[in-house]
Design brief:
six-stranded mixed β-sheet
Length: about 500
């Protein structure tokens, strides 16, 4: 159809300011249309619009003729305790999302959110002790009339793009739960949510490196406070060399025809592959290490140019050595060993010089007690003694048990951060997947926090922070003064 000026006027008058678009106008907007535009010069142009564009124009016309959406947005921000002239920009971002989203009920949803704060997503309704999808939790908290195609995308757009302003930096997630939930901006923690102070931490968008926890540089200077007991060791390189030797042992036994020994060597190698996956950060290699079940499958797996890694039903008797998975892993490990040699000092490697499987428990208590992220944090020596009464201290050597090591350092960092900032709960969130997990910090003992972390292996801590040696910082980047928490 060809709609001229009069028809557009009728359409415009029929929908402007109306909370529900009349059926006759929905019929017009429900199909592809041709719109004729006459310029001031008298020249006419005709455009063909798809239905999706028609819906955007509909919202734009409605919103431009009333202040309802602006009032809803303003009310949402005020109820979330985001006030002041600095909010004009994030409010405009939200308004643009409302207009341009593929979600049909964005205008009506904003009106509902602005007048039903107490009925929105509550903190008490969130799952405990597990990773959950927070977008689904938001959807489930809304009345049925708002559920439908495009809602999840709308929530995600708001989450990633609407960031209110405050005296301190505001991260992703803080606005999300004050817009779609009953939370509001807090004082000590990021949010006050159902009377609880909740600190929101998320990875950041697009392969984010995690959220840095607070610190004043105390943990970075541990080597200056404790005398090293051996020469510096690059822990990553040492770990990779251990994997390299294990992989070569698998290959040697398999080529010698000793299937039993090859399987034993393979079992040793694969048991520690989680740490290898973290070090090499290669999706295809990591997926294969997760799915290959035995040494024969492992040795006969090749990289095919068109289909990626897969098991070969009839192995090529003369395969290209560069395509055999063990060889590819060896090449990648050698590359990572060389890269590790170039990075220089880092925190885990410093600690590896201070601790070994043969060190007494007193050394472990001393070293970990010095890993507070704030110099004025409370002494944690007695807390560590209790912790090592529960757990075998040798299971926290960074050379042999890196996962336990990074988790314990993370627990200490969380406790120091909680003492400095003050909050009851802290979250770790994945902004791309829209997943999160909450940790209860109301009883901040090392054992309690470590146990919670141990039950959520998807949460890890990046300890690749800068260090202080010989009176100066050894850094190639902006100085990071504490570990990063990350939800994988």
């Amino acid at each position: 159809m060809n709609y001229g000026k009069k028809a557009l006027e009728n359409l415009y008058n029929g929908i402007a300011g109306k909370p529900v678009i009349p059926r006759k106008h929905l019929k017009v907007l429900g199909e592809d249309v041709e719109v004729s535009v006459t310029h001031a010069s008298g020249e006419s142009e005709t455009f063909r619009l798809e239905d999706s564009y028609g819906k955007i124009i509909t919202r734009q016309l409605r919103i431009s003729q009333t202040s309802d959406v602006d009032n809803s947005i303003d009310s949402i921000f005020k109820q979330g305790n985001w006030t002041g002239p600095k909010q004009a920009k994030p409010q405009k971002v939200l308004k643009d999302i409302i207009i341009n989203t593929v979600y049909d009920n964005s205008v009506e949803l904003m009106e509902y959110l602005s007048s039903n704060k107490d009925s929105l997503l509550s903190f008490e309704s969130l799952p405990r002790g597990q990773v959950f999808d927070f977008a689904s939790q938001i959807e489930n908290s809304l009345p049925h009339m708002f559920k439908g195609d495009g809602l999840r995308e709308f929530i995600h757009d708001v989450h990633l793009n609407v960031v209110p302003k405050a005296s301190t930096g505001v991260g992703l997630g803080e606005s999300t739960f004050s817009i779609f939930g009953s939370a509001e901006k807090g004082n000590s923690g990021d949010l006050v949510w159902d009377g609880q102070e909740v600190e929101i931490k998320t990875n950041g968008q697009g392969k984010g490196s995690g959220a840095i926890l607070g610190g004043d540089g105390n943990i970075n200077k541990i080597a200056s406070r404790l005398e090293a007991k051996s020469d510096y060791i690059n822990l990553n390189a040492e770990t990779l060399n251990r994997y390299k030797k294990q992989l070569e042992d698998v290959f040697s036994a398999y080529q010698a025809g000793d299937e039993k020994q090859a399987q034993q060597n393979y079992d040793t190698f694969i048991r520690g592959s989680d740490q290898l996956k973290q070090l090499i950060r290669n999706g295809k290699l990591n997926n294969m290490l997760s799915t290959i079940k035995d040494v024969n499958t492992f040795m006969s797996t090749q990289l095919l140019s068109t289909k990626g890694f897969q098991q070969v039903a009839r192995p090529n008797p003369n395969p290209n050595p560069a395509n055999i998975l063990p060889n590819r892993l060896l090449d990648r490990i050698n590359l990572e060993i060389n890269k590790s040699g170039e990075t220089g000092t880092n925190l885990p490697s410093q600690i590896a010089t201070l601790l070994s499987p043969e060190s007494p428990v007193e050394d472990y208590i001393l070293v970990f007690s010095e890993m507070k992220t704030y110099s004025d944090s409370s002494d944690i020596t007695s807390d560590l003694k209790e912790f090592f009464n529960v757990y075998n201290y040798t299971d926290f050597c960074p050379r042999t048990s890196y996962d336990n090591f990074q988790r314990l350092v993370g627990a200490i960092s969380l406790i120091c951060y909680q003492e400095k900032i003050g909050f009851y709960y802290i979250t770790a969130g994945n902004d791309d997947k829209m997943t999160m997990v909450t940790f209860d910090m109301r009883q901040p003992s090392i054992t309690n926090i470590f146990n919670q972390l141990k039950n959520i292996p998807e949460v890890t801590f990046d300890l690749g922070i800068d260090v202080f040696e010989g009176g100066r910082w050894k850094s190639k980047t902006v100085i990071a003064k504490s570990p990063r928490i990350k939800l994988n």
